Amino acid sequence: MTQPDTRAPAPSNGKVPPQDAWADALARLAADQARVRAGGGPKAQQRQHEKQRLTARERVGRLIDPSSVFDELMTFAGYGMYEDVGGCPSGGTVTGVGTIAGRPWMIIANDATVKAGAFFPITAKKVIRAQTIALENRLPVVYLVDSAGVYLPMQDEIFPDQDDFGRVFYLNARMSAKGIPQIAAIMGNCVAGGAYLPVMCDTLIMTEGSGLYLAGPALVKAAIGQVVDSEELGGAAMHAGIAGTVDYREPDDEAALRRIRALADLYAPGEVAPWARRRAEVREPESRDLTELVGFDGAKTYDVRDLITALTDGGEFHEFKAEYGETLVCGFGRVGGYPVGFVANQRTVIKKKLKSGGEPGLRTRIEVGGVIYGDSADKAARFILDANQAGVPLVFLSDVTGFMVGRDSEQEGIIRRGAKLVNAVSNSVVPKITIITGGSFGAGNYAMNGKAYAPRFLFAWPSAKYAVMSGNAAAKTLLDIQVAALKRQGHPPDDEELARLYEEVKAKYDTELDPRYAAARLWVDEIIPPNDTRDRLIRALEACAQNPEQEEFRVGVFQV
Question: Given a cut of 60, is residue 5 above it in pLDDT?
Fold first, then answer.
């Protein structure tokens, strides 16, 4: 499905006023979310209703507690992908955390309006990520199953690998072994290998008119010559009364959803994490529009302490080593009553005092906000150790250009000190949540707890830029590579061709910098408006609090 550009045109001078840029970005985000959440579109939704079935999002809306919030995750899965086969909006499935009977549950619902709920490669990866979040946070899971199985034209990309379709059942079984509740409701098709998922759950519900079988009637006829109708082969009555596969047979979607809610209300509450037992009374911070604080394009400097105090209860923040390693700000506060530690990129320009080096007095240098220097890497690594010692979750506010380069930085041991920070992030055992507010470039992404470092949740603002280096630098590097290749072929480009090549390279790279590109590939869990950050963070901490277990904290060989 082609995703049209809904952005408003820029002024004739090419510059967009800062608040207009934010308004434009937020309007585009809302429009793109609405388009993606429409799934296969009005006609496909109508076909679902004609079968006396609800759509995936209608099912989720009726399942969660009234007036509660469904925190959808991975809304943009598959965005702009699979265009040659009509697209796969939201990966053909709806996932997120919602409250059922007063407790957070992970909800995974196939969207039958998108290719009959068939699994594309991104669908499997999205379900696996949702299951992984549930496993790490000990969240009970509801599966609302309505899927035609694997999308066969892409079976080689869906079936065999470690993070492909089979991993869904592996995690299904692992969660069951850890005592994490799982309820499945078959509310449409459930065929082939996908039939194992609901049957491996604690409880299985099935609605009339649904089908559960390893092979449908057509495949059975082709394979063994047997002629059998869908109801006799795998209907709800057969599975409830003959095969004994189904625990509860329900007449329709509404009855199935009521049954899930009733069963969920019977589960014993789990023990919460030790840090969550220290939850204090919630104090609201002073109201502040974060889009006025943080510029959309990254050009505006700002003090990240102002962002932190806009998120913390009562604006209280206990800063760690405030006068040292100032390009990273670290410290403790409370969010929604929960204790948290912050690691945040400072975005002001800093006048740094240096050792005298034998000269009288002190020398100074200017340090650029968003860059990680050796002393800030040392400080953050030490702070992460402190947070693990205290058993306090970590929140990373990422707006990072990368590590400092150059002779002085190398001689100060930036590689060694950066490795220490990456080690601390990698081995941290407390819950980690990352919010990308601006740039997330190169090794700075690693140091600031990017996707590879197992954040429990990873959110991005619409202003996020996600790549190995910034757009202009990357475009120039890629252009140099292309020019060198052309020269080797005996075709040195003229100025006009150079300009055209540069624009082509930069346009491609700018597309890849967009957070939707990252969200489409599940490098971030959700794109959120800045002013939703505190509420979203509180609910993410509530989800993390459901896991009372914490591994032993060990860092192995630690650079000094």
Answer: no
